Amino acid sequence: MTWTPTRDDFNTYMLPNYNPQAIIPVRGDGSRLWDQDGREFVDFAGGIAVNALGHAHPALVDALKTQGEQLWHLSNVYANEPALRLAKTLVEATFADKAFFCNSGGEANEAALKLARRYAHDHHGKQKDKIVSFRQSFHGRTWFTVSVGGQPKYTEGFGPIPGGIVHGQYNDLDSARELVDENTCAIIVEPMQGEGGVTPATPEFLEGLRALADAHNALLIFDEVQCGVGRTGHLYGYMHYGVTPDILTSAKALGGGFPIGAMLTTEHVAEVFVVGTHGSTYGGNPLACAVGYAAVSTINTPEVLDGVAERHALFRKHLEAIDAKYDCFAEIRGLGLLMGAEFNARFGEAGRDTLAAGIDEGVMLLVAGPGVLRFAPSLIIPEADIDEGMARLERAIARVAESVG
Fold this sequence. Notes:
Aspartate Aminotransferase, domain 2, seven-stranded mixed β-sheet, globular, PyrdxlP-dep_Trfase_major, aminotransferase, EC 2.6.1.11, N2-acetyl-L-ornithine:2-oxoglutarate 5-aminotransferase activity, PyrdxlP-dep_Trfase_small
């Protein structure tokens, strides 16, 4: 007997911590998706900045098929060729000397925060444990990372939260100066806040954090889980700003849709993670690393990275035209192909209504809070798909405009 799942089955069998849209996509090709009924959608969501090469990209499919016929899993009792190949590629393309692989952005940030505390402990003493983060930040859903994140709604009801964590105001260097002191082991920041509203850091802010970290013997951690791997038009966002962190975390687009995370750091910092200090059963498994290598090798090319700026300009042009017609946005912001369109006071918190209207019109969107539309499409989305998706978005905005008056 065959069984075709429906959206109602989610409510029956799955925990209620998600609330998916009414459709179930079953097939993707590039920047288009099709649901169970054969309806087509233009994908502006990209799996929340994950599908950086779209759906079923030939290089990723080939890497997965080839590796799947050779070796799936060893554990870290043994080294494997795909992990070493990906580590070498990332080290040679960035500031880093060493790489650690895991399964997600949350795990990458967990590793980074543990590394920073261990480094401070070994070099400066156990009293140096303070972590400075920023309000509206998002660093993952593990207990440590959700506490470091600057959104209390994600820790509410789960207390008590771990100690030694304080939060300043993003893009406010004076706020950070008030918090960073000799007991600070790490400053963690997103070069562009994603969940917090798609807000890029100012150059002065990141430069100031680097100086603060240096002055107080703290480590600077860049969380590039969402903004990394080509999304800004550079392989990593720190390259856009010219500010180099001590530790960088990466995930999402790193595997192009296959789960993988990475923490990158310098040799000096890495030395404190001696054998047994940290680990991951699945981290660095051959399947994920083979796909990750294919993704990074494809993305880190002039053709792809230079094309991000061109596509950003086209997205902005369409969004500005929609705003001119419907007077709906207070600000359009972002870098590369991580963009946010914040609704004005008239539209208010119309994000989820716009997502639902978008589904009806055949375009998949994201939000970053209730009042910000977020766009994180494939880095190689064809211009024709941008044009078509924006035409569908305009129809969705028109429907929402009728409801808000």
